[in-house]
Design a protein that fits this description.
CATH topology of the largest domain: Arc Repressor Mutant, subunit A
Shape: extended
Structural class: alpha+beta
Largest sheet: 3 strands, antiparallel
Number of domains: 2
Distance between the termini: 61 Å
Strand content: 15-25%
């Protein structure tokens, strides 16, 4: 069956309805759960990615500056919200389940896209933002570095 056209009806207050009109004249209506404001919080996703990448709640807790118990509670709540186990917890750390591996891949993309969105929106302000890294040979660097830094501070005083 080929899909002829598709329309989506979406509000945050009701489930998303996807209406597919098939070439054979059939119509299929699919629904996805309604979003709640609490589901738009990306902190649990960020915490999950940190736990998955570090392989341990203690290392992840240290890297995000929260206690292990809070981190564990947030991840447990994320698993409950998704109705799936994301991690196998062992005495030596954590291992990802298949669902956890999928969420890690998608979570990394979402976090990266969010960083891109922030950067793109900030660029609209017209101010230069970001980090500058210079690499020079030692002899050239010793002659030019002070002049470059002084010019940067003159032209971009907010860079401090």
């Amino acid at each position: 069956m080929a899909v002829r056209n598709s329309s989506i009806v979406n509000t945050l207050a009701m489930p998303v309805l996807r209406v597919l009109r098939l070439t054979a004249g059939e119509t299929v209506i699919m629904t996805t759960p309604a979003l709640k404001a609490s589901q738009l919080d990306l902190k649990p996703l960020y915490y999950f990615v940190r736990v998955a990448e570090s392989g341990s709640f203690s290392r992840a807790a240290a890297s995000v500056s929260v206690s292990q118990s809070i981190l564990s509670r947030v991840i447990r709540r994320l698993e409950e919200d998704l109705s799936v186990q994301l991690l196998h917890r062992t005495g030596r750390g954590v291992k990802l389940t298949d669902a956890g591996q999928r969420l890690l891949e998608d979570g990394r993309q979402i976090i990266s896209q969010l960083a891109d969105v922030r950067s793109n929106v900030a660029a609209l302000s017209g101010e230069a933002k970001g980090a500058v890294s210079l690499g020079m040979p030692p002899l050239l660097g010793s002659m030019l570095t002070i002049a470059l830094v002084e010019r940067l501070r003159t032209e971009h005083p907010a860079s401090g």
